[in-house]
């Protein structure tokens, strides 16, 4: 099949992304379970961050290679011929890359649309209220159903049903709201959306599920830690709130995870997490910049261009 200059660039970029993503995904899938087990030995907020980085690493690494390597080498060294033949193998891999991105983007958009509908329904069925001790409004929904959640991404809102607000004591309600505000501070809803928008590590493999389950577990623990801030009194109040809301629910969901959280809160007050340093992000940016400088050397770009020519054939 023959393609013109820009469609050929798009085809090569998608094929390269798929191959690099596959290679990185295989590596991450091998260490997913050990990484999740290792998370049990460190602070929950650090464990959640590490598992999130591993989950997003294949897509981020593949995107970096495409942007920092493929595009410069193609634009600099590829002659602007009217058309050029592209092999069946390259087209097939590019289609796989297109399908992979289409599935993940559709999944993310569907989740974002569902969240938007949920917020609209809550706003129609409830009203903002300033609860004692709270600095911002909480949306109280006129319903006896158990509902206590943080909705939205750009402008998150705390949403609670009147049934839950009536069932919890003042201390339990305050602890539960602090837990949801901890998710707000950590931007966990945005992180969930990023996970949904990012292609799975490997199709039909458990690496993505292992990392996503681990991230959710440690994100909940980290929110618990921020909510109780090392206070045994707050820890007991939050554990009691979790149990009471679970009893109001016909389907309590993952009871083992709930029991684990409650046991952790009652066994000892989780310590307040230390301030989040920017050293990890700075290190990642420094490594990426160093790689970009090394890759953008003429000899490196020429070698990449030769590899791309073999891919196209």
Short description:
With 313 residues, this protein is an alpha+beta fold. It has 11 helices and 6 strands.
SSE blueprint and pairings:
Blueprint: E1 2-3, H1 5-38, H2 44-77, E2 84-85, H3 88-125, E3 126-129, E4 138-141, E5 148-151, E6 157-161, H4 162-167, H5 170-186, H6 188-197, H7 207-228, H8 232-248, H9 255-267, H10 279-295, H11 298-312
Helix pairs in contact: 1-2, 1-3, 1-7, 2-7, 2-11, 3-6, 5-7, 5-8, 8-9
Structural account:
This protein is α+β, with helices and mostly antiparallel strands. The chain has one domain (2-312). Helix content is 71%, strand content 7%. It is built from eleven helices and six strands. It has helices at 5-38, 44-77, 88-125, 162-167, 170-186, 188-197, 207-228, 232-248, 255-267, 279-295, 298-312; strands at residues 2-3, 84-85, 126-129, 138-141, 148-151, 157-161. The strands form two sheets. The protein has a four-stranded mixed β-sheet, sandwiched between helices. Strands 1-2 form a two-stranded antiparallel sheet. A hairpin with an 8-residue loop joins β3 (126-129) and β4 (138-141). α5 (170-186) crosses α8. The longest helix is centred in the middle third of the chain and has 38 residues, at 88-125. Mean pLDDT is 81; it is low at 277-281.
Question: What are the defining features of this structure?
Answer:
alpha+beta; four-stranded mixed β-sheet; 11 helices
